[in-house]
Predict the 3D structure of the following.
Amino acid sequence: MSRIAPGGASQDEQSDASGRTVAVADAAGLPERFENPGLPEHRPRLADIDRKAARRAELSVAVMFLLSMVGTVVTIVGYFAFRLDEPTSGELAWSNRTIGLGLFLTIFFIGMGAVQWAKTLMPDHEQIEERHSVESTPETKSAAAGILREGVDDSGIRRRPLILGSLAGALALAPLPALVLLKDLGPNPGNKLRETLWGPGVRAIVDPTKTPLRPEEIQLGQIVHILPEQLGIEPDEGRTEGLEYLNEKAKAAAIVIRLEEGEVPAAARAGAYGGLVAYSKVCTHMGCSVALYEQVTHHLLCPCHQSTFDVLDNCRVIFGPAARALPQLPVGVDDEGYLVATEGFAEPVGPSFWERGDT
Amino acid sequence: MTSLFRYRRHRLALPALLLAGLIVAGTGYAAVLPSAGATDRGPNEFTAEQIEDGRELFLANCATCHGLDAEGGTTDGDGKVSGPSLIGVGAASVDFQVGTGRMPLQASGPQAPERAPQFSLEETRALAAYVASLAPGPGIPEDRWLDPEQGDVAEGGEIFRTNCAMCHNFFGNGGALTEGKYAPAIDSEPVHTYEAMVTGPQNMPVFSDDVLTPEQKRDVIAFLEYAQAEPAPGGLSLGAIGPVSEGLIAWIVGIGGLVALAVWLGARAS
């Protein structure tokens, strides 16, 4: 392969990085030096040589500008045709459609007409502007340096070391607040990622109706979305309000499923109540709600990245990017016969985090 | 009628209209016959005549897979049962499966698709009567639980988003499951929506009346009616199936259009 050296002359041989000499010219008949091919020959456009074509082009530009005018009318008509004082959502939809379409026509066809005009009818002769060296002459450079030097001398900064020193100090300290503001990224979550509201004796309530649940109400093949009873209040009441409520809900959300008693996996039997097994609803991959339950295959799917968990194998991952099985929530009943957790989750729920410990 | 009227341009509208005409003509003919039964019975009170009719229909159309006594079909070499036992599935299950054309199954596959019903309402009810006579099970819901007017749309929306939306999409437009299975779009009659919740057909879980009360099921039906009647205020709903169709349009129509414009901008006029 032939190459043009920076100086303009082609080299037949060139040293590569390792110092070996490699042949760069080849016998394929490439010229020793590429000549500047110059501009392609000027080819007049149809509109330059044919009056009818020019007339057609003119007309097409005018039509485009006309379409823009139509768009303006459509926009204004659309605004007044659908009064939005008390709109039905059908009226709202039509209002959005007409105003959107009208504005599109208005703006788009002004641009398109202008481009069409420039392309077909505006003067078409090539112009050449030669490039010049960007480097200044030595005289200009030394004059500029002189001005700078004069400025430093005039400021008298050399004679006033106190100002120089204090300015340096101020500049050095100025970035510090940015570092201090980083403190707001904390504090560390502490144990929050490992704890949920579930604990021994905490009743399960149905999401979203917030009613307590009895085991016999859950039929074979049924799935119930449950929350700990502390979340049975309205989010703006009491201790767990707003953000904290949502955080706790996001961690504690769980599902309970009734299997045939014989189907309960051996590993889950200690935390099961009859055929009832409960698992965290938070995907161990990215924390979406794993709630697509196929009651025949007993697969639980995560809708975000299709991680699939096999309930008959203690919610082991059988497909998708999740790395860990869903943590089981051990369940039982309290004195009044309501479904409760007998313990909290044995491991942190949801996705991995830095300090989690294992994978 | 307005809810049916909006399907007037659907490609199945003409066949459905024809079918409806046939059913009207057929049942109208049956109505003038002297043997037509009284109609003031509850949905789950069946006559001995209906049960007998249902048994005959069952033997002719269903027994091949579900067994002569509906106790379940034969098991093949791989341990697959030709059809599950129908003892205790209740009238609701039959009314849903047969009323939406899922049964009789036309071909084996990942799941039974919804089709035009193969049996008239009378025949469906007769089959339901026969299956309900075998053992107690969920019954066909009463009309008062099916009226969307009486449901609470907001409450139904919340229940739907917690319990149903993950499979059926937030507007009830359906979605994919594993290995060819899917959650269908919920555009069926309220009675079938209700029955699906009670019985948990195929891979759908059960939502028992104890956990999801009939009132709450009616709220869900009200929400679905509302969601489907609601036109898209933003302009085009693109099927309301979320980022898939929106992304497709954005990439192909949107970005494709921009590329075409860029090519036009850069091309020399002829």
